[in-house]
Amino acid sequence: MDLNNRAKNIKLLAFDVDGVMTDGSITYDENGVEYKTFNAKDGHGLAKMAKNGFITAIITGRRNGTVDRRALDLKVTEVFQGVKNKLPILEGIMEKYGVDFSQVSYMGDDEPDICILEKVAIAACPADAVDKVQKVCNFRASKTGGHGAVRELCDFIYESQVD
Fold first, then answer.
1. pLDDT by residue (tens digit) across 35-84?
2. Which residue from 74, 54, 55, 71 is spatially nearest to 63, judged by alpha carbons?
3. How far apart (Å, rounded) are the C-alpha atoms in residues 103 and 31?
4. Mind listing the pLDDT tens digit for each residue in 91-141?
5. Is residue 108 within 8 Å of 125, Cβ to Cβ?
6. Which of 6, 106, 150, 154 falls 20 to 30 Å from 21 in CA-CA distance?
7. Where are the domains of the chain?
8. Is residue 121 within 8 Å of 10, Cβ to Cβ?
């Protein structure tokens, strides 16, 4: 099945954070507080998907309060932080909403994401994902993590379903 047809079936979009929703930078202040910078255009894409009935999810290995805040602002449906094995979390979300892998898109950028990327209908990555990830993805954004890759995927899926 070609990518456009796969996109027509997507109901759940899941994302890693560092290197996908951000550029992968991790910034600390002198007190050890971690900061993340998110892209407004990516945010608009995610918010549009949530507003139009798509299930949106964040599954990330790190834990940070800014992720909760960003997810709340964008009305992300499910947020899981501090996750080392991401696949069982995604499978739990799928079960909760009654979707299967043919209805799922996931965007990741590094090796912990491969376990999911190998199973979903649209395996997506930013342009600057590590080589091992790029090899398993069928959607490679032209934009890098934190600089429009999320929006590119959201627009692709949305436009495939409204045509």
1. 899 999 999 999 999 999 999 999 999 988 889 999 999 999 999 999 99
2. 71
3. 43
4. 999 999 999 999 999 999 999 999 999 999 999 999 999 999 999 999 999
5. yes
6. 6
7. 3-162
8. yes
Report the C-alpha gap between 84 and 48 in whole angstroms: 29
Longest dimension (CA), the chain: 51
Helices 149-162 and 40-51: crossing angle in degrees, nearest 10, is: 30
- Separation between Cα atoms, residue 37 and residue 23, nearest integer Å: 8
Mean pLDDT of the chain: 96
Question: Are the CB atoms for 43 and 73 separated by under 8 Å?
Answer: yes
Q: How far is CA 108 from CA 22, 32, 33, 125, in A?
A: 11, 26, 25, 5
d(CA 34, CA 57): 22
**Does the domain at residues 3-162 carry the CATH identifier 3.40.50.1000?**
yes
CA 147 remoteness from chain centre = 13
